[in-house]
Structures are given as C-alpha cells and as structure tokens.
C-alpha cells in the first residue's frame, strides 16, 4: 500500500485551463455571428435595386444567386469598394461588421460617411445644403433658370405674374431668346410650335386643377369651415393671391406703403382698368416686383424638391455639392466645445442648421433686393 501511495504521489498534476476554453468558445461565437451578419449583408444587397453590372441589349437580368456571388466576391476582395458601391443599401446594424480593430482608412471613411447618411437629421441637412449649392450653380449657368425654362415648368404662375404684363414686342423677344433669327430653320419653327402647344396644355391642366379645388371649397356651405376654406385656397394657390391675382379676378399691387405725400398705397383694380399710381414708373416697379416674386418662387420650388422633371438624386447623393469648409469648421467646433458624445448631437447641430438657414435666407433675400 505504501508503494502504491508513492506511485500516486509521483503522478503529474494536470491543470485544466477553463479560461482558454472560454476564449476559444467566444472566438467561435464571434466568428459565427460575423458569418451570419455577412450572409445578411449579401442577401440585403442581392435583393436591393443596386446595379451589379451593365447589361447589354437583350441580355437577361441577373438572378439573385448571381447577384449574391458578385456581392460576396467584392466584399471579400475589397470591403471599402463594397461600401462605396452598395453601402447605402445597408443599415447601421450591418455596418458593425466592418468596424474591426484592423479596418483600413478607406473602410473607416465609408463607415463614417454611411453613419451620417443613415442619420435622418444629418441627411436632411446635407440634402438642403447640396440643393442650395446646386441652385447657385444653375443660376450662374443660366439655362435651367432662364425665363423661358421657368415658364415651361410653371406656365400658369408665369402668366399670372409676368406674362400678362408683357408687350407683344417683349413676348417676341422672349420667344426668340434661345434662337438666332438669322439662323432659324424650319425645324426650329416646328419645335417652337410643339413647345408652345405643350406649354398651353400644361397651363390648361393647371387651370383645371385650380378650378376643381376652388369648386370643392365653394361647395362647403358650413360657416365654421370658412376660415379653413380660405386657408386651403391660400396654401394651394397662394401664388395667385400673393402674386397679384385676387380671388374675384382683380389685381393687387405689391408696392410698399411709405409715409408722406409721395406714399405708394396698395391698390386693387378689376380687369380692364389701368394701374393707379405714379404713371409708368409705378407700373414698371410693380411688374418688376411680381417678376421677382415669380423667380423666388421657382428657386424655392427647386429647393423643396418640387421640380418633377429634375433628377434630384444627382444632387442629393452627390458629395461634389458639399460645402466641405463649412462642415469641417462645424465638426471642429463640436469636437472642441463638447465634453461627451451626448453634447455633440444637441446644440451644435442646431447651430449649424441655423447657420445654414441664415445663409440661405440671406441669399433668398438678396434675390428680392436685386
């Protein structure tokens, strides 16, 4: 017995490292979780409206499996290019897949950009600023916001504010502004006729829509709804009342009232009567105000995304329109002025938005002055 005891004493003591097993189990769990997220990423992208390749004529659409294969190959080959191409079809939770300790600069860049894209407040602010920058460029180029181009987009409003006050000579000059009379061909004349017919049809549709809404409002006989009815008309057709057209068909001048004997009073008149005031100069002043109101309305319409024939995706998702200097300055201020992440997202964002709005307001006000 003593000998057996001695042998037992001589046996090596084996220590079981439970922490090592726990670490291995955790690694396996992490790998499995990443694999699941990766599968979800590929599925989301494959089932999205993303463009995977340019298809030739009569070439069949890619199947879901083919799209999954393309997405998976790009994801493993170049994660940053994958994010650049398909990142906007993901979400904040799926972006965690790319946030690793060894992620490179390109991946970090796109992750940060997509985080901002998925934040509604930041995205709305970026969209507003990009449209503002696009507006300034389009105004500078002149074509999109030329008088004839704006007339084509909203002929009824143009007629109410500008067209009805033009002389025949001015109308002719306007219609020939885009074409040199010496070089005008039969095709040019034909295209002008087609365009004129299009404008007239659009104006007719706008008039019908206006009359339909006004008839619906007039059919409401309850006196309690009278204020609401007037508000609805003002909201939908505020152009007509605000821009010089009264509901009863009269005109209203937009000149400001001044003190003294030379004051310019706001006056109304029925169709057929001449504008009252200081003769021709007064009329020109009022016409210029109405014209500027029309231009301002068209600018605002563009900024609000109401130009139905304009592809806003070329602006809203285009970083080329970003005011990088202003954004960098704002983000630096947020970093130095805040003590915690919570503070970053509250007052300074509103401050940046207010500053952007102030800049836009200044620009729009300058339009009215000039």
Description:
Residues 236-281 and 339-357 have low confidence and may be disordered. The chain has helices spanning 2-10, 18-46, 64-77, 79-86, 92-95, 105-118, 120-141, 147-153, 155-161, 168-175, 186-218, 226-242, 279-303, 313-316, 324-337, 341-344, 347-369, and strands at 251-252, 268-269. Strands 1-2 form a two-stranded antiparallel ribbon. The chain is elongated and about 90 Å long. The protein folds into two domains: 21-118, no CATH class; 124-322, no CATH class. It has 370 residues and is mainly alpha-helical. It is 65% helix and 1% strand. The chain is built from 17 helices and two strands. Residues 129-339 form the CCD97-like C-terminal domain. Residues 209-227 have a biased composition (Acidic residues). Residues 17-27 have a biased composition (Low complexity). It comes from Cotesia glomerata (Lepidopteran parasitic wasp). Residues 343-353 have a biased composition (Polar residues).
The percentage helix is 55-70%
Which percent band covers the strand fraction?
under 5%
Number of domains: 2
Largest sheet: spatial strand order: 1-2
User: Which blocks of ≥5 consecutive residues have pLDDT under 50?
Assistant: 236-281, 339-357
What integer is the average pLDDT? 72
Q: Biggest β-sheet: count, sense, barrel?
A: 2 strands, antiparallel
Q: What is the SS-derived class?
A: mainly alpha
Tally of DSSP β-strands: 2
Q: Distance between termini?
A: 113 Å
Report the radius of gyration as a whole number of Å: 33 Å
Shape: elongated
Protein name: CCD97-like C-terminal domain-containing protein
Pfam family, one: CCD97-like_C
